[in-house]
């Protein structure tokens, strides 16, 4: 399986999901096939360019919770990916975000103590301030899948340290902030 970086559906622009790929040498593009899950049938997309493809970043299968081994290292400004799925029938995808500051912090690097808190602020700055998708709080010491059937479920977190991975996400940044 390879991960397929989304750019078509506005709400999924900074996310990636498992897809089976087949290469079309005539067009130098791929055909992506999402496996069926829930009540959704197979989804196909033709003409997927190389810049939207990447190998799976971890060995964790799409239906399994990724073991977050970076939570104690996270500091404001760190780039992360977090698993998210619509409901328990769906596989996880990976969403791009950054670690933010706690509300009680003014962001001054000399006085910031956010990295000492049990709460980690995850920001998804592709969404407008005030959007329910803009921010999520996770427990650094006892993080597990969290969420509900209405808003979906957050899963494991992975800290991005590779500049190429971060650059690939930033290339997909939407031109307009999402609602």
Termini Cα gap = 31 Å
Count of folded domains: 2
Structural class: mainly beta
Number of E-type strands:
11
Q: What is the approximate shape? A: globular
Q: Measured on Cα atoms, how large is the radius of gyration?
A: 17 Å
Largest sheet geometry: 11 strands, antiparallel
Helix run count: 1
Uncertain residue segments = none
Strand content: 35-45%
Secondary-structure element sequence? EEEEEEEEEEEH
Specify the helix fraction band. Answer: under 10%
Q: What is the average per-residue confidence, as pLDDT, rounded to a whole number?
A: 85
Account of the 3D structure:
This protein has 179 residues and is mostly beta strands. It folds into 2 domains: 2-55; 71-171, no CATH class. It is built from 1 helix and 11 strands. The chain has one helix at 163-171, and strands spanning 2-5, 15-24, 29-34, 43-48, 53-55, 79-85, 93-100, 119-123, 135-139, 146-148, 152-159. The longest helix has 9 residues, at 163-171. The two termini are 31 Å apart. The mean pLDDT is 85.
Question: Which descriptors apply to this entry?
Answer:
5% helix, 1 helix, 179 residues, mainly beta, 2 domains
């Amino acid at each position: 399986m390879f991960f397929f970086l989304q750019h078509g559906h506005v709400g999924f622009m900074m996310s990636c999901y498992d897809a089976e790929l087949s290469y079309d040498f005539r067009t130098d593009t791929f055909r992506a096939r999402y496996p069926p899950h829930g009540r959704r049938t197979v989804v196909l997309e033709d003409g997927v360019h190389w810049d939207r493809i990447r190998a799976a970043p971890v060995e964790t299968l799409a239906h399994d919770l990724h073991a977050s081994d970076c939570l104690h290292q996270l500091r404001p400004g760190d780039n992360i990916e977090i698993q998210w799925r619509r409901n328990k029938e769906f596989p996880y995808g990976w969403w791009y975000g950054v670690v933010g500051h706690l509300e009680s912090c003014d962001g001054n690097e000399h006085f910031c103590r956010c990295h000492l808190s049990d709460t980690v602020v995850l920001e998804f700055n592709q969404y407008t301030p005030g959007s329910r998708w803009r921010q999520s709080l996770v427990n650094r010491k006892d993080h597990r899948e969290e969420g509900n059937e209405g808003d979906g479920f957050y899963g494991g977190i992975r800290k991005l340290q590779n500049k190429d991975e971060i650059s690939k996400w930033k290339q997909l940044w939407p031109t307009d902030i999402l609602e």
